[in-house]
Write a structure and sequence with these properties.
Layout lengths: L1 E3 L5 E3 L7 E3 L2 H9 L6 E3 L8 H4 L13 H6 L4 E5 L5 H7 L5 E5 L6 H12 L3 H23 L4 E6 L13 H8 L2 E3 L13 H7 L2 E5 L7 H10 L5 E4 L1 H5 L4 H18 L1
Parallel strand pairs: 3-4, 3-5, 5-6, 7-8, 7-9, 9-10
Antiparallel strand pairs: 1-2
Helix pairs in contact: 5-6, 6-11
């Protein structure tokens, strides 16, 4: 049987004991949840979950600018990358010595189902992958039931300050928020993470979200924003729960369900 990655490249079941390097934090977490923690031989410094497992795995630098010589020395059979999170030229350089490059690019929440089955199939963890799929479907249905009975709301999701950056609607983050009934601003953008007119869009939004990543927005930033723009409604949001795909998406859907219910009641 074959499974195709984000570039359409076919992959088959690996017959031996894999040596896996993950250059994507959410994929590192997913590998552990598939029961492959012991097969991880390398990660980035941003691969921080689950800590008890990943702290023993050698760090290779960041998702960009990782140490290619250290990676080569680990002799991986597989390296996992993502189109958005890793530089193309650095990934292409790995093709000279990595037998299996697995390229991922989930853009919508339900793309996680294919991702679970891709890695589960390649590494012989189909049972674990299907268990994750079932958990995802339950969380998806629960969020959908809640969102179906609520009015859709326009939201501004901020990921950076000065310059103020948001997310376009073709991003994974925007699709996750849409599942909770939240439609991101701006409505159209040729840039996936555009710089925005903060006062204009903040006043057009029913809620302004300040994400915990990549910029670490905190309570003081929330206070400063509401003082600067009186009358807007703003809230902090856990960026990992919205932007991390893989197994974290299951928790993310439950988190969004609770957040939507809480904000609607406040």
């Amino acid at each position: 049987m074959q499974w195709s990655d984000a570039l359409g490249k076919p992959h088959t079941r690996f017959p031996g004991m894999p040596r896996i390097v993950s250059l994507v934090p959410s994929l590192t977490e997913l590998l552990v949840d598939l029961g492959l923690g012991e097969r991880l031989v390398g990660r980035t410094g941003f691969c921080i979950h689950p800590r008890p497992v990943v702290r023993r795995v050698p760090k290779l630098g960041g998702t960009n600018g990782f140490d290619i010589d250290k990676l080569r020395a680990l002799q991986p059979t597989h390296v996992l990358v993502n189109i958005d999170e890793n530089r193309r030229e650095e990934v292409e350089a790995l093709a000279d010595f990595v037998p299996h490059l697995i390229v991922t690019h989930p853009l919508a929440a339900r793309d996680n189902l294919e991702l679970y089955r891709l890695l589960g199939g390649i590494f012989g963890r189909e049972k674990e992958a299907e268990a994750l799929c079932a958990d995802f479907e339950r969380a998806w249905a629960a969020l959908g039931t809640l969102a179906h009975g609520r009015p859709r709301q326009r939201v501004l999701y901020l990921i950076w300050r000065e310059p103020w950056l948001s997310v376009a609607r073709d991003t994974y983050i925007s699709h996750m928020l849409a599942a909770a009934g939240w439609d991101t601003l701006p409505q159209t953008s040729a840039i996936r993470y555009p710089e925005v007119d903060l006062p204009g869009l903040a006043r057009a939004a029913e809620i302004v979200f300040l994400s915990s990543e990549p910029y670490p927005f905190r309570a003081q930033h929330l206070r400063q924003l509401t003082e600067r723009l009186p009358g807007i409604r703003a809230a902090l949001i856990d960026g990992e729960m919205v932007s991390w795909y893989g197994s974290r998406a299951i928790c993310g859907l439950a988190y969004l369900r609770e957040l939507r219910a809480s904000l609607d009641e406040s």
